[in-house]
Amino acid sequence: MQARKDAGITQAELGRRIGQRQTFVSKFELGERRLDVAEFMEVSRAIGADPHTIMRASER
Questions:
Q1: Average pLDDT, the chain
Q2: pTM here?
Q3: DSSP letter at 21?
């Protein structure tokens, strides 16, 4: 996830912030697992990003 990288946060750190393992983060970043809306919002908050901005960027 580019937004996570732009924030300078590792997968392991993001996992800690959301109460999950690094493998959870890896799986959704690789597209092996989808996030539901609540998880997406939690991840967005954890990296300090605006979820609307991430969604707009994904449409490009």
A1: 95
A2: 0.88
A3: -
Long-range contacts of 16-25 (CB under 8 A, 24+ apart): 17/46, 18/42, 18/43, 18/46
The Cα 10–Cα 51 span in angstroms is: 19
* Domain membership of residue 43 as a residue range: 2-58
| Contact call for residues 47 and 14 (beta carbons, < 8 A) | yes
The C-alpha angle with vertex 21 and arms to 56 and 33, in degrees rounded to 5, equals 45
CATH value at residue 20: 1.10.260.40
Residues 48 and 4: beta-carbon distance below 8 Å: no
Instruction: Count structural domains, the chain.
Output: 1
Q: What is the DSSP letter of 32?
A: S
Q: What is the pLDDT of residue 19?
A: 98
